[in-house]
Specification:
Length: about 90
């Protein structure tokens, strides 16, 4: 199962950061879901919309919902140029 990242497409800063990562995801290893425009995706997974708008949410490759900074580790693990950063951060975690 591909990991998913749920982001606020109505937030300019969020959109810019996610667009950067999407540009690096040339192998389409992550499913990027704009919850501002597609809130029903959250419902299907039992994620509260307001909670997802307040804190970055994702679904890992096992189907588990993750919140906050753990999502950046998941993103980095799936982007070739960032895998070393993910390992480094996990090592110090």
């Amino acid at each position: 199962m591909k990991p998913m990242i749920f982001y606020d497409g109505g937030c300019g800063l969020c959109l810019k950061e996610i667009a950067y990562y999407q540009g690096l995801d040339t192998l389409n290893r992550i499913i990027w879901v704009d919850i501002f425009n597609e809130p029903k995706q959250l419902e299907a997974l039992g994620i509260d919309y307001l909670d997802a708008m307040a804190v970055l949410h994702g679904r890992d490759e096992h189907g588990d919902i993750i919140k906050g900074a753990e999502n950046f580790i998941m993103i980095w693990e799936n982007l070739a140029g960032y895998r070393h950063l993910a390992r480094f951060v996990v090592w110090f975690k």
